[in-house]
From TrEMBL:
Residues 64-174 form the Glycosyltransferase subfamily 4-like N-terminal domain. Gene3D superfamilies: Glycogen Phosphorylase B. It holds the Pfam family Glycos_transf_1. Transmembrane segments: none annotated. GO terms for molecular function: glycosyltransferase activity. This is Glycosyl transferase family 1 domain-containing protein. Residues 184-338 form the Glycosyl transferase family domain.
Length: 370
């Protein structure tokens, strides 16, 4: 079978070997051919693995819907792909383009909602706008899709069903594709109390985390947080650290070069903490748990489904004081290795050797039904 993917991720076109690349490294084995339509980029890569072809839009994102319709028709006329997988995200250019393309070629597609921006908490006015836009539009944009993919079992399905998407159309298909040969416990020295890997953006809640570190260090003055990532909030976060005497407590590591180095950074830490305001997963939470780290998280995405209070970590609300309380409570536990082992067991089912073939099979089912 042949697959057309309509994605918002153009990283593979730029030669980056991030999460999308590693997904394709396994996914391509299940298809005769994959074509990817993605936003404009400084493209250096046109083909991967011999039969995955990347097509970047020539124009700005506002015209992405037109590129999807036109390029999709051209590819269908030449390659006759069987099914489409469409990533949905505001302002919904992919959704509109897929809808228009389906009207022309009548091929089924899976609409993938990985992340409900602004839910359960919005970081700013833009996220609030996208939240209300999605709340209104998804009831219409999901209609032409054969199925709607969500990546957690409760938060996203509950939201969508309350806002006009039929339960029967919603399908839970995990998107955390863990390479358990990389993300596993290692016998290395623990150097950091806390670790977070994330884009340094508002919705990740990192300023709240720094405020929590400031509170928690009153009980543990030598508390350390390893912060892995880059983003638009970096200078603001660094300024907060400098102004609040946290330079010895917070280490800005930037992005690490490989997944192996990321796994090592997890293993050198005692606890993973996720302060996000809204997420679909997040994947990094599961990666750290696979490395045997107890987890602390806000109630976003998969976290409420995976974290059992006191057993493999703790959930908390979005206040810095609540975070600080859980940080100190977990660090005082004498059974952190046992808690971490329970965290590891909780994410075993996300092994990429199972989840990616399952993803491919679910898409193929739509083509066979058609």
């Amino acid at each position: 079978m042949k697959l057309l993917m309509i994605s918002g991720d153009n990283s593979v076109a730029q030669g980056k070997k991030g999460a999308f690349y590693h997904t394709l490294a396994e996914l391509h084995q299940h298809w005769e051919r994959i074509d990817i339509l993605c936003p404009r980029a400084a493209q250096t890569v046109n083909c991967l693995f011999g039969h995955v072809f990347i097509h970047c839009a020539p124009d700005a994102k506002i015209w992405q819907w037109r590129f999807i319709r036109q390029k999709g028709q051209e590819l269908f006329g030449r390659e006759r792909f069987d099914v489409m997988a469409v990533q949905s995200y505001p302002p919904f250019y992919n959704d509109l383009g897929a809808w228009l393309l389906k009207r022309k070629i009548n091929i089924p597609y899976l609409l993938e909602i990985h992340h409900i921006i602004g839910y359960p908490r919005a970081a700013d006015l833009k996220e609030r706008l996208y939240f209300w836009l999605g709340k209104f539009l998804w009831r219409f944009l999901t209609r032409p899709a054969a199925a709607v993919r969500v990546v957690n079992q409760k938060q996203a399905p509950d939201f969508l069903s309350r806002h006009g998407v039929p339960w029967g159309k919603i399908k839970y298909i995990p998107s955390a594709y863990l390479d358990l040969s990389v993300f596993q416990p290692r016998a290395v020295e623990k150097k950091y109390d806390l670790v977070l890997a994330a884009r340094l953006e508002k919705n990740k809640g990192i300023l709240n985390l720094l405020k929590a570190v400031k509170i928690a260090k009153k009980q543990k003055p030598n508390l350390t947080l390893l912060l892995i990532g880059e983003g638009g909030q970096k200078l603001k976060l660094q300024k907060y650290v400098a102004n609040n005497n946290l330079a010895a407590n917070v280490i800005f590591a930037g992005w690490v070069a490989t997944v192996q180095k990321l796994a090592l950074a997890y293993n050198r830490s005692r606890i993973f903490i996720n302060p996000s305001l809204n997420e679909g997963g997040p994947r990094v939470l599961l990666e750290a748990m696979a490395c045997g780290l107890p987890a602390l998280s806000t109630k976003v995405g998969l976290a409420p489904e995976l974290i059992k209070d006191g057993e493999n970590g703790f959930l908390f609300d979005w206040s810095p004081r609540a975070m600080a309380d859980k940080i100190n409570k977990l660090l005082k536990r004498s059974d952190l290795p046992e808690i971490g082992e329970r965290a590891r067991l909780a994410v075993r089912s996300f092994d990429r050797q199972k989840t990616i073939p399952n993803y491919a099979q679910e898409i193929k089912k739509l083509a066979l039904k058609n």
